[in-house]
Amino acid sequence: MELKFESVARWLPFNPDPLMVENWIGNRTLYPELLPQTEEELYLEQAAMREELREQVLTGASQIKGKPAENPAPNWERLIPKLRRIARSDNEVLGIILDGLEPKDIFSVPGLALVIAPVGMIPPGTAVAAEVIVDLGLTEKQKMLIPPDDILLLPLPRNQKAKLKIKLNRDLRLNKKGGLTLELESEGCGVLLDLRGRPINLPLADGYSRERVKKWRGVLN
Questions:
Q1: Is 76 strand, coil or helix?
Q2: pLDDT digits (tens, 9 = 90+) for 174-220
Q3: Can you tell me the distance from the alpha carbon of 117 to that of 157, in angstroms, rounded to the nearest whole number?
Q4: Three-state SS for 194?
Q5: CATH architecture type of domain 103-199
């Protein structure tokens, strides 16, 4: 695919120089095997990978006309090692997968996390996207109110059993329901709740969106 400044810049946590980004895109096209050498190049590479994954999902969807969009099913044995080459942690790998593949409902990323991502769009001004009660069976239950456009990572130890009771804002659905109770066993990074809605309201290359990207990255650093 042909990368453009706007599509790369919207995923960056800093205000980029357009000429610098265009030069980087050109060099990446000529030398695709080169790995990032600086933090700035790392952010650029991760942004480009987000866009490439999104393009792959769109291309796949266009080839199945008339059928409802399902969660993508990439070759995880190839994709995860590829992403680890341009990430400093598995949390960053998970962030690229979330933004690029945009999984919905309940979705397992093998060895990394169980993703819970409701479908729907929440109107501006809404205070709470979901009420979540976490029961680990060891201490008192933990109740959390999660605002819209947020990502919450529950960093549970691998194989930790937990019960989650989720009550959603009326504009969101999980498996076509307004709430669910899940009994689960966590994977590598834990359990991730993505309350940005589906489809994600994509960031733009502006100051407000820059803060959104910083917030999302802060959860998964």
A1: helix
A2: 999 999 999 998 888 899 999 999 999 988 877 778 999 999 999 99
A3: 21
A4: strand
A5: Sandwich (2.60)
